[in-house]
Amino acid sequence: VPPSINRSGIAFEVEGNSIHYALAALKGVGAQAVESIVSARGERPFTDLSDFAGRINPRAVNKRVFESLAASGAFDAIEGNRALVFAGVDTVVAEAQRAHDTKTSGALEFSFGETTARGALNLPKVEPWPAAERLQKEFDAIGFFLSGHPLDDYTPALKRMRVQSWVEFARAVKA
Predict the structure, then answer these.
(1) Torsions phi, psi for 15 (to 5 deg)
(2) Of the listed ranges 2-11, 49-58, 150-159, the one predicted with least confidence
(3) Residue 19 pLDDT more than 80?
């Protein structure tokens, strides 16, 4: 199962016939950052990027960690556009720092009749990455392709040409 900020932990976990990818196994994401994320998540999953920014410790989850999480697809459960998450890294990290400073200073936020708009981060408007770019960034963060493969777009043409996959070839040789 791909990495997820709402499900993954420090180590790989087996549940039934599934292996949940460990966040600490992502490039640029250390155990301390993952411990901070898991602690902030507690029993309540993150609902959106603003919720994530408001609950994490920005000293543990810095820009590099956030970029790796975004590229790997760890935020897909709360925001499917990885390009948007990646482009909004500075905004989310700044919001996390602001929220952390507010908590540690003991200051209270007053809205004076207005509700504070959690979830209203001013993220840049960006188009989703093309499949090839999304897979390349995923490969850079994880070390292999997890959600697809660059040749997936060519599957129909390869089938028409009767090109065997490695698995099909290996089965034919064993028989």
Answers:
(1) -135, 110
(2) 150-159
(3) yes
